[in-house]
Write a structure and sequence with these properties.
two-stranded antiparallel ribbon, 226 residues, 11 strands
Length: 226
């Protein structure tokens, strides 16, 4: 069993994302490629049929994003102060009188498939002070809850279990950036890939990894990489 780590802390101050929300790019581009102005951009394929890096085996979306996020550790001066944005649209976050029936393990195909069920309502993933807190609004296209912590805590949301003995697994962050903004990771809901923005050194590092399927991206032209 993996040893437990301290959970990320909820970040109630949405103004820490103002620089991103107010960046000079359409919301549709910001959601999938992050803000403009970085030296280089790359798209990283999620694992799937026919495009998994040789010898790696299948990795879930959260696992792959966590791997790449940790690879960025040496490319920021603030690895212990990182902001994570969790998309509000995952149905488990708010809970309610429906329960999750099925979700593609990569969290893309069926993000919200529910059916009514008898008994207690599904609890929200977080306590009310988190669920009811202000959320970052990206031009009405996406909204995010913010969390903060170190790179070592990536994916440690601290979510409540669905029921006793039934842990709750949440997807990867849709937005990730260190406090010094040295790089940015955007993992939106629909694409079968995510974007890393940063220095040319960082992007060259990712391009050289044999355990990743990576291609150079052109900012402002978010499309399926070839």
């Amino acid at each position: 069993m993996r040893p437990s780590r301290a959970a990320l802390s909820h970040e109630p101050d949405t103004s820490v994302a103002d620089w991103f929300v107010g960046a000079d790019a359409p919301a549709q581009v910001l959601a999938v490629q992050g803000p403009p102005g970085y030296d280089a951009y790359a798209t990283v394929h999620f694992d799937g049929a026919g495009d998994t890096a040789a010898g790696t085996g299948y990795r879930s979306d959260p696992a792959l994003v966590a791997l790449v996020t940790r690879l960025c550790a040496n490319h920021t001066a603030t690895p212990d102060d990182v902001v994570y944005g969790l998309w509000e649209g995952w149905g488990e976050i708010d809970g309610g009188d429906a329960r999750l029936l099925g979700v593609d393990v990569r969290y893309r195909v069926l993000p919200r498939l529910f059916r009514p069920h008898p008994g207690p309502a599904t609890p929200a993933a977080f306590e009310p002070r988190v669920v009811d807190a202000p959320r970052v609004d990206l031009g009405g296209l996406r909204s995010y809850l913010l969390f903060r912590g170190s790179l070592a805590q990536v994916g440690e949301w601290g979510a409540r279990p669905l029921a006793p003995g039934w842990p709750r697994t949440l997807p990867q962050a849709s937005l990730t950036w260190p406090a010094d903004r040295a790089w940015f990771i955007a993992s939106d809901v629909d694409p079968s890939w995510f974007t890393v923005a940063g220095s040319r050194e960082l992007i060259d590092l990712l391009l050289g990894r044999t355990d990743l399927v990576v291609s150079v991206a052109r900012y402002g032209d978010p499309k399926e990489p070839t």
